[in-house]
Structure prediction request, 134 residues.
Amino acid sequence: MINHEKYLVTLDEFFYGPDGDYYYSVYGRVEIIKAEDLLGFKPNINSTNWYLKIYGDTEFIMIDGNKVHYALKTDITPKQYSEVKTPKDTVSNPNTVTLDTDAENVNQNDIFIDTVDTIDKNTEVIKYKIYILK
Prediction:
C-alpha cells in the first residue's frame, strides 16, 4: 500500500460505524503506522506490529493490520449501498471485492463488496455496503 493514496479496504471482521450500522469495508486515504509509534511501546510477539489509519477530511478509523483482508487502490468513490438480484448459482464467493460490470443496472465504474441473502431457492440478493469516510 502507498501512504496517503485512496483505497477500498475489506476487513476480516465487521466494525460499527458512527451511524450504529456494521460494515466490512471502508473507503478513504490510508496511512500505515507501526504499532510502537501508535501505542508508545513495543507490543509482544502475539500482537499486531502495524495499524492502518484510513481517513477522510474530518474522520478516521484505525484498523489492526492483521484484520485487513483486501485493499483495492482506486480514486473512484464507491456507492455506499446498492443491491443486485442474481441467479443463485452465479455467486461464487461472498464477502470479496469485485468490480462488477456484468450485473443488471450496474455502471462499470461502480465498485462493490458482496454480501449475499437468499430470497428463494433460485435467486439471491447481493447487498453492497461500504463505509465512506467524510
Remarks:
- The mean pLDDT is 75.
- The first strand starts at residue 6 and ends at 16.
- DSSP finds one helix and eleven strands in the chain.
